[in-house]
Amino acid sequence: MTHPAASRRFQWFSQGVLVYTLGVILWGAFVRATGSGAGCGDHWPVCNGEVVPRAPTLQTLIEYTHRLTSGLATLLAVALYVWARRAVPKGHPARHAAGWALFFMLTEGLVGAGIVLLKYVAQNASLWRAVWMGVHLTNTFLLVGAQTLVVWAAAGRARMVLKGQGTVAVMLGLAVAGMGVLGVSGAVAALGDTLFPATSLADGLRQDMSETAHVLLRLRVLHPVFAVGLGALLVLVGRWVTRLRPSPEVKRASMLLTGMYIAQLCVGIINLVLLAPVAMQLIHLLLADCVWMCVVRLCAAGLAEDAPRFEPSPAPASSVEPV
What we know:
323 residues; 2 domains; 10 helices; oxidoreductase activity
């Protein structure tokens, strides 16, 4: 069943909210990469005990700006949810997606507050900080995924269904899980790069392989391995879903996923060789979010209620008569 498309204005607004949210996510990564997470101390939602810091340092300005932009992102998520309820009828998938987008925006704020209040910022190198970074990245993916589905559904596409999808559902589930593992390992690797910067590629390898290496360094080395293996899985899933659900939307999503992942892999290699400068970390994160959005789009197209299904032709009967 294809649902009616929302107004052009709502479609543009949903796209704008998604783009703005990506900008806030990148600024949050900039806060972490520059060690500015403690710019407002362990105070939340105020900054160093003040609503507006009077004599802010550069780190305070960076962290405070992130809080302001995050607050605006929350207001936009509320506006998106309210508008979705008015723009599309009850039962429309855009409504459900906007509700989840608001939910994950609120949990995003709570996770961010927890990181600040528990002091998992600046030079804190505890394993629990890595755990919270993984939770933060997972919630961010869920938020971006929900907003991507709002944009997708607002164009009037069919809802997703899991019943009767068989192999397609299993393979897309593997792609989602694989992307989650890859994202979390990337967040941990980025944290290791921030806390234990290397002076050269060889120095970085010595850090990772040392018997006395910090646990974050031991985890950091896993990310490139996951990137190659899970990247191959994503491309394979895209090809198989294209074969089993041969719709134009699935084909486009699969091609975008393949192209975006190749770009992400290339940027990852450059990031590694250049010893993870801040600018490359941000580009790497942006492409990771784009790959994730491609996976979400592939899921939406492959699991669409009206997606055509490949039906293998029965084997022709033998024309040779038994003796």
